[in-house]
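re the bet — no i am not wrong, look at it urself. input seq straight from the record:
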Amino acid sequence: MRVYVENYGCWLNKALSEYVKQVVSRCAEIVEDAELADAVIINTCAVRGDTERKILRRLRELASTSKRIAVTGCLVNVRPYSILEVAPKASLVEPSYLSELPRFVQGEELWLVREYRRAIFAGEYTGGVRYVIPIEVGCTGACGFCVEPLVRREVTSLDPELVLRLVADAVRRGAKEVYLTGQDVAAYGLDLGLRLTDLIRRILSEVDGDYRIRIGMMEPWMAKSIADELSELIRDERVYKYVHLPLQSGDDAVLRLMRRRYTVEEYRNLIQLFRRRVGELSVATDIIVGYPGEDWEAFLRSVKVVQELKFDKVHVARYTFRPFTPAYTARDTVAEPEKKRRSRILTEVALRVAASINSTYLGKELEALVCESGKKEGTVIARTDTYKPVILPDTVKVGERVRVRIKGYTPLHLVGEVID
């Protein structure tokens, strides 16, 4: 049996897809081209409506072939009957049952939907510069726009001893980057009587080697409780000076409608704390435009906050209705053309801010880790200690640490030359 695994969604899903490949490879051959596969496993994402539509189109396409299909990931619990409508013979396996996928490969038809159990899976390092490890799933929030509580109901954390073993093995075998990922990594350890800072401190003290830790997305209300301690750990040279803290709106009234557990002022204080304690720091955030109840003045407050807090990267998303969420039946909706207009305006502002930040790097000499091949032929991408991507000529190898001089920039990256 030849199996192809196709992934949609976040870093957490990417890491879980790697686990799926490893667990399935015990009884089948993993191939990198769907055309060569006898069976296809689709790991889905349910966060956005446009992603859902893309996945359903793909499943309809696969269903027209003779390939066996299994669908896992977040969409299984959210839209099981929509999946079966386009792919009637598909097996459905919700995310807490990934370890059961070999049964599908061996010929069983599976229906494991909304049978939630507390489980988290992590694959071993398989090579390359980057090792992505899911350290937790679940979130303590109940945001008005988010369908994830239907998918994963409780915070479930990976045992710290297993994290340490997997990370140490990855670094020993050549990993230079360790991505700690999850739905909200700041919630790590709530179920174990631990905190994220306990885990990071143990990694730094017990795992020797030349590596960088990238801390995944953290919800502000959880990050606030560990910010003092975490900011000190980020100062360590083995941790990227980078935080991803989704704001979602720059208006307090909209934040209340979203059921977010902080105010704009509290968020501002959190960012200022990290910058004050860490020094030079890259900050990424997420903002939703067109959420039900967001009027023009509220939107302009989001624009103002982006200009004020000077984010290095802003993920701008138009609100999309998701089933089983409080906002799904909201009345004070924003028309789709207006959402697109606001998205365009905020994106343009965010890019101008990012370009202004990146311009300050011109002429600087920095150390950077070469992480991957570039999209443009003849280039590679390196990362500075502040996680800034630097485009370099491919005269250097992936995995090398190099000294670079910054000679150009765009809103999305820096352009450098290697210093001999």
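see?? Residues 130-359 form a domain with the pyruvate-formate lyase- activating enzyme fold (CATH 3.80.30.20). told u. also DSSP finds 13 helices and 18 strands in the chain. so pay up
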